[in-house]
């Protein structure tokens, strides 16, 4: 299962675990305000961005050094939800449970949200991967992480998401 091959790149840890342990310790991100998509605003149970504002009746969330940890926690939430959903599907398959279809729908839901977040035009995930030291613990098997080119890692995330499609 491709989604779980992240341990090969992360020194035996899951990507969500590595990101979850990240402690931002230096200025890296120039502040920008982004308009969050409705699906992200309405989603319950995800970490909240602490710095928000309204501009011309439009909600904006801050992406900066002050909030980059909050944004990384949202990414961890999606990665962890996909991982848990994969476990639930595998368990339902093994036990031939009647709710396998429901478990597959839940996996599909979280895969879609992770995909939307990774590919969101605001570029939050790309900036987290390329402009911070968030994934410095990831080995350079796919690409050198210190560059501004995150296409390989984003493509790997996209390939991993194809499991749930």
General description of the model:
49% of the residues lie in helices and 8% in strands. It is mainly alpha-helical and 165 residues long. It has one domain. α4 runs antiparallel to α5 and α5 runs antiparallel to α7. It starts with 5 loop residues before the first helix and ends with a helix. About 7% of the residues have low confidence.
Strand order of the largest sheet: 1-3-2
For the residues shown, what is the average pLDDT?
82
Number of helices: 7
Low-confidence stretches: 139-150
SS-derived structural category: mainly alpha
What is the domain total for the residues? 1
> How does the overall form come out from the CA principal axes?
globular
**Secondary-structure element order, N to C:** HHEHEEHHHH
| Annotation, overall tally of beta strands | 3
Oligomeric assembly: single chain
Distance between the termini: 13 Å
Largest β-sheet summary: 3 strands, antiparallel
Task: Estimate the strand proportion.
Answer: 5-15%
**Rg, nearest Å:** 16 Å
Helix content: 40-55%
Quick description:
By secondary structure, the chain is mainly α.
Write the layout of secondary structure elements.
Blueprint: H1 6-9, H2 15-20, E1 32-34, H3 38-42, E2 52-55, E3 58-63, H4 68-94, H5 100-119, H6 124-131, H7 151-161
Antiparallel strand pairs: 1-3, 2-3
Give a quick set of tags describing it.
165 residues, mainly alpha, three-stranded antiparallel sheet, 7 helices, 3 strands, 49% helix, globular
